[in-house]
Amino acid sequence: xxxxxxxxxxxxxxxxxxxxxxxxxxxxxxxxxxxxxxGKTATVAALCRALRDRLAIGVVTNxxxxxxxxxxxxxxxVLPAERIVAVETxxxxxxxxxxxxxxxxxxxxxxxxxxxxxDLVLVESGGDNLTATFSTGxxxxxxxxxxxxxxxxxxRKGGPGVTTADLLVVNKTDLAPYVGSDLAAMAxxxxxxxxxxxxxxTSLREADGVRPxxxxxxxxxxxxxxxxx
Length: 229
Known about the structure:
Layout: E1 28-33, H1 40-51, E2 57-63, H2 68-76, E3 84-88, H3 93-99, H4 102-115, E4 120-124, E5 141-147, H5 154-157, H6 160-164, E6 167-171, H7 176-179, H8 183-194, E7 199-201, H9 211-224
């Protein structure tokens, strides 16, 4: 697969705010954030593979100075090239997903307009810290990805990403025995921080390891679509 797809990476221009859109009349937009190396891009790729036969999916990735994550998804051929768009933020990742969302919002809307009706758009943030959250003007739901190699104390440390995301994903559970992470303690601490908000434990090296996240996305989409009726 060639990576020189200029149509996949439209030039940035000034965004003009569009009128509010009723839920169900456009694609559900789900943001994925989390620390560097937690497995955000791998989760996006696994979700695309798991759901692409059932849903029309688009992806917008964020990197500060490169298009590395988009290129990874293109090389993996998880979706047609025209459905993968890269945004180069040029600043801290949280700026482009929370503070000045114009480049991302433009990319999402251009993607939907160019490729036709989509069911789901995944917006992947660049690697950030535990404070990273998405603007509700950009996405309809948020997933925050951490991994066991980062330390089993991460859920206990909290932060907006851990405590407020609609879904917390604890990734790379297969590494727990090798890095000394206590999965039961992570589950307990996450529950204490998040209350009733859901937590999914994943190992993307296992067959269908992304299934808990895919099922959550499908449930959100089922709740989203009927609003158009």
